[in-house]
Hints:
Shape: globular
Number of strands: 10
Structural class: alpha/beta
Number of helices: 10
Radius of gyration: 19 Å
Amino acid sequence: MIRAENIFKDFSGQVVLSDVSCSFEAGKANLIIGRSGAGKTVFLKILIGLLKPTSGKVWFGDTSLFDLDKQQLRELRMQIGMLFQGSALFDSMTVEDNIRFPLDMFSKMTRGEKSKRVDYCLERVNLAGNNKKYPSELSGGMQKRVGIARAIVLKPSYLFCDEPNSGLDPKTAILIDELIYSITQDDQIITIINTHDMNSVMEIGDHIFLLHEGRLAWTGSKGEVLTSTNETLESFIFASPFLQRLKRMYAKSVHTI
């Protein structure tokens, strides 16, 4: 489990996060949602250890993240997979080289062992046989899947995803959600996802954390979204006319029963 305890963060006196406490479980899709400027990206960077909070703690199990020395932090980061918003692939490297990069950096595997692991990860994201292609030869969805393969190549215990569906069409976004979710469940990874995608919220949102103006405004599951009376949640989630209709239909069906 990852726990954030009383996280505060300010930049030159401007408060970005204020007393945020929550926990993230393994085998679940933990989604952080909120409007632009709500503090989601800063919070994610703190959870990964890229930013230090002004005060508060982050725990990976019984390990306090910001009490680790450089070597201990390096060892922890070897257990972390990261899927970046823009995939962040190296254009000059093949798909195979991109996925193998963390293995070259952090593992002591032989060349043959690395190749087997790369092939397995490509199969896991349904891209077997694309080893020698370059990112420019792939669609946006395929690039995202390569990013996922690279994120899991070190067999991480923790997977962080920053806007994984950004720039994707709805059908491809659903496929990416399903892939991340299946990996999370199959490998019992602690997965934390920053997202604006309400389809993701309603499809895979096991645990949802709503940040609003730097504070944790609501927590719950995708099932509880439709029954919540939290005004901040409603104004964010149901800004979409489609979701407004969905909630009215749900309320009508419950009333009828």
